[in-house]
Amino acid sequence: MHMAISVAVSGASGYVGGEVLRVFSEHPDVDFGALAAHSTAGDALGLHQPHLRTLADRTIVETSPENLAGHDVVVLALPHGTSGQIAAQLPPETLVIDCGADHRLASAEAWAEYYGGEHSGTWPYGMPELITGDGHQRDNLPGTTRIAVPGCNVTAVTLALQPGIAAGVVDPTDIVAVLANGYSGAGKKLATNLLASEGLGAASPYGVGGVHRHIPEIVQNLTSAGGEDIRLSFTPTLVPMARGILATVTAPLASGVSADEVRAAWERAYADEPFVHLLPEGQWPTTAATLGANTCLVQVTVDQKAGRVVVISAIDNLVKGTAGAALQSMNLALGLPETTGLQTLGVAP
Amino acid sequence: MHMAISVAVSGASGYVGGEVLRVFSEHPDVDFGALAAHSTAGDALGLHQPHLRTLADRTIVETSPENLAGHDVVVLALPHGTSGQIAAQLPPETLVIDCGADHRLASAEAWAEYYGGEHSGTWPYGMPELITGDGHQRDNLPGTTRIAVPGCNVTAVTLALQPGIAAGVVDPTDIVAVLANGYSGAGKKLATNLLASEGLGAASPYGVGGVHRHIPEIVQNLTSAGGEDIRLSFTPTLVPMARGILATVTAPLASGVSADEVRAAWERAYADEPFVHLLPEGQWPTTAATLGANTCLVQVTVDQKAGRVVVISAIDNLVKGTAGAALQSMNLALGLPETTGLQTLGVAP
Amino acid sequence: MHMAISVAVSGASGYVGGEVLRVFSEHPDVDFGALAAHSTAGDALGLHQPHLRTLADRTIVETSPENLAGHDVVVLALPHGTSGQIAAQLPPETLVIDCGADHRLASAEAWAEYYGGEHSGTWPYGMPELITGDGHQRDNLPGTTRIAVPGCNVTAVTLALQPGIAAGVVDPTDIVAVLANGYSGAGKKLATNLLASEGLGAASPYGVGGVHRHIPEIVQNLTSAGGEDIRLSFTPTLVPMARGILATVTAPLASGVSADEVRAAWERAYADEPFVHLLPEGQWPTTAATLGANTCLVQVTVDQKAGRVVVISAIDNLVKGTAGAALQSMNLALGLPETTGLQTLGVAP
Amino acid sequence: MHMAISVAVSGASGYVGGEVLRVFSEHPDVDFGALAAHSTAGDALGLHQPHLRTLADRTIVETSPENLAGHDVVVLALPHGTSGQIAAQLPPETLVIDCGADHRLASAEAWAEYYGGEHSGTWPYGMPELITGDGHQRDNLPGTTRIAVPGCNVTAVTLALQPGIAAGVVDPTDIVAVLANGYSGAGKKLATNLLASEGLGAASPYGVGGVHRHIPEIVQNLTSAGGEDIRLSFTPTLVPMARGILATVTAPLASGVSADEVRAAWERAYADEPFVHLLPEGQWPTTAATLGANTCLVQVTVDQKAGRVVVISAIDNLVKGTAGAALQSMNLALGLPETTGLQTLGVAP
Predict the structure, then answer these.
(1) Residues of C known to be catalytic
(2) Residues of chain C with pLDDT under 70
(3) How distant is the alpha carbon of residue D346 from its chain centre?
């Protein structure tokens, strides 16, 4: 038996849209309907996504409420500030999954400060593994018809640190996160600093000094996990890879906590998670091991001299960081097994 | 219903072995038995293949006939010159798939000249799309219990040019092939020229001047496709990517042939192939579009001034170039649909 | 004693302009005057060329005849089709060095066919090592006040093959050249295929099938070196490096010529060249060895079975391919020692 | 007039040795004597350092006190633990410059803890810009005949943070440093994790959790700059580039200090430094801008919400991080102008 789920994708010619098509294609029940975009409407999809052979001959249609109507699921892969408008024109019973930032933040003040403009409202947050007061965010997703997919950097940092926050073994008031980021996180937009000539052989930071838009979202998550008075220094750096995030996250070791208690906190948090894997002691994550997969690899240790817990996580920004989280959340929303169609094998080397 | 096919893999801690595990994992009927290697025997697989999460806790066993016995299929991912010995100790009814070079060449003289040492014999060749006198190589695979998987460079060049050879629209006596190659084709062996410091930001040739071991295999294939008196200049070059082969192959336009006839030859050859795709006119292959997929992308044009047909093909050396070809051939040998479990979506960007 | 040569650079915020500034800075007699550009005029140079610390505080001025006037030397690093106009407004006694294509071709027909538009005329060609009927192109440069700097691909292919053409040991009627190219050759322009996300981990061809604008220039050079009825198949491919060209060039071995005669031709041609180095037998060029240097590394061999001579050359497209050739030619034009201020040590690894 | 300084280099076939040869070649007074190594002795240097054209024909000699004797300067580019022995056999009046770790640490206890084995003693430290109690380390170098060149990561972190420590505007008891590192920092040794296939497209950490050998050296330096009770969390990560270090260093803002006071501290510290450049506000360092140059680019800001000062520095690990520091220190030791022969122009893009 095949339960067909019709899925429309808006932003189909971009990197996030392309990855949604790739990842959702592996789901046994998904049938694609409209593949929509704006400036590329009318083109064959294969012109912009030559790696998606099964969809190469499909024609891109204009992003419009009419074209997106009539599907079970609509995935929006649009620049922030634009999905709110589209979503408002879709019926309430359609499952709308927003890969953009518009509906992630609960705080309208935080939205105004970091993004500017009017807040589009808050949707159920598509990070099933997020620890909440009484369980996990996955408990809040069944039956929802609106899902806000987390930011990719946010996923890497949240999954790295939340076990320590929830267990109270780290001090949440002085977190420092530094990330090595692949270029696809910046999207397909044309900018000099995103050119291959600039990126090849170079490392460079961006959004330094507390201004990056992912900060309030990380604070929101770590607060959900039980942290109070979260303070976070957050610095992403572009390095020469197309995909991947390696997050190095440190926080002060809470007073009187042993290294064994630290490790136990992470083991407990992720023992049953299908996609978040604490590696054996001594083995550290590499982004290569997550390429193309919906996995997050984590390792933790205590630096006693520095008085800090050091956690490193690796994800593929376009899968666990975006399209995989979208599909995982869709499964939960529709009452399917959470892992359906999701890949745990990375493409390495 | 699940028809379990038990598969053992020898060389499981190397790049080819790891890719066999990744690609065969996606086959609905495959169950892995022994994962064997030599110097890493006793280790958890995850130490050497951290991307293969579902197999990370499996213990690597020693490569021995005892450990490999009792499986439906044994895949050998070993250095050339070693698989002949192992294969000889496996029962004739076991399907043995050799990813190495030992059993590819029909000519013992060619083996002696290019590889040296004794020839291990010739097995049915695992390139289903290869054009033969009266059909395709896929016709020769059902029921076989021995398969020689083609070399990766060989696959890229053969699939690029064979339509023109078979149709007689190119002159086979002066072929020139230059390849851009990712580093994984060289395997996991430790050598100074394979270090990241050497490879990053650099392009360098290897095996120049008619000495590369893939030459007699390409000649053998193009002869199968109908070429006589094949002569081939072949130069691979290492470029800074982990995977992928981009082959630029040119041959003189046969006398009196039009550009339309050239295009028609390629269209006809690949119209029904599930994994070899002639792109729309004007779109050229990029290796990125094949990453992780069992696809070969091809484009062809005629350079009238130069009097040459120019063909460019792109493959993932570890998938269509090795592990995917192995699985595709296994399907044929076992009487399963040829495309079972094989991926056509690349991981890009 | 310091003989000051005042140099203005137009296009100072681009890649070629930046490299002209870097390379000319190492010349003991050069003093920079106007650093001109168009869209970046008014900015500090360091904003666009952060690697040029000694010039970081200089202000970019508008590209205008007024701003460029009054210098001993004006270097134009502009898109093709624009330098002709500017040059026409500079005094005849000013040494104008055009890094663009406008003045390279002797044939107005070739210009019309490959570039389109009106031909700006032909200037003395800035490739000192080019073999001419009775010597080298360096003999034609002293005293000139106009220099057309060669194209970077052209330099790689010409220097690779001209010894064989001049000595008559290769057949010039069926040359095949395939190049691995770094991204900076495409300049700083914003285009999707030049994004880091597209380029990282991928190889892709461009300008395939006899349409690349560097073809007539290569033909012109090889004709200068003594070739008749030159025919050339030419395919550049983008690979993940910021700089560098590795050219694999093959041509049929002329009838009755021995491998020793082939090697002797290359040895003779480059024995006294300060920047073009034939490597010891068995050692092949890598682009890494030329990074930042005005060198061209070459190796040649004979593939007897294929009946072809195979030559591989490596250059830094921005140095020997552009800015270094400009400085070397300037030295000759001004009567200075040809090697003054030019670097032969590459930056590796 | 030419004051010839004869320089011998031990470890000439490695990455550090090769860079010493490249960088010292640009010094007007340096003449190379013995080029020594061990396993490559007898080879032409060009076989191992093909980018050093002017030295390509020199023969590598065995590393022995006899071969190193009789030079004005001996540069040791050897694995740690081996230079102490060699140095002991060189005359006291020879200037010995050790690029390895053996003589950097003042504390024998720190040596024993992080490196193990016997401490070889402490030599004057080759970081001219290091702030000391009453000036800079450059004041201690004139006339010395022994120099310990700093570690590359140490240089990036020290130069990033010392202005804030010296000015008392940051709290030194909770420093967090995360680095993006190019592969050449690991040297030419053969190890699986240093292969191109592993490094291309991947980011991975090493030496995590307070065990990295550069930690005590950084603590020593920041103590020199005036810090007390230094505590440092330090995590280097390998990213796909051959050269370069991007260090993201944060420390708590000291109580009552304004953002202006922070900036003023960095401006004051580096206003007169020839090689350490604080960028204009808003411009952040990229490693590309330092490639091949003896420069360190720095930017600083205050993250008020996080309560931390964030500093980012970029260097070329082989130049400012090693060979350039060696030459700069040699100049000081020999009474030459500190900047003689040192490059400030990076090779970009």
Answers:
(1) 152
(2) 1-2
(3) 17
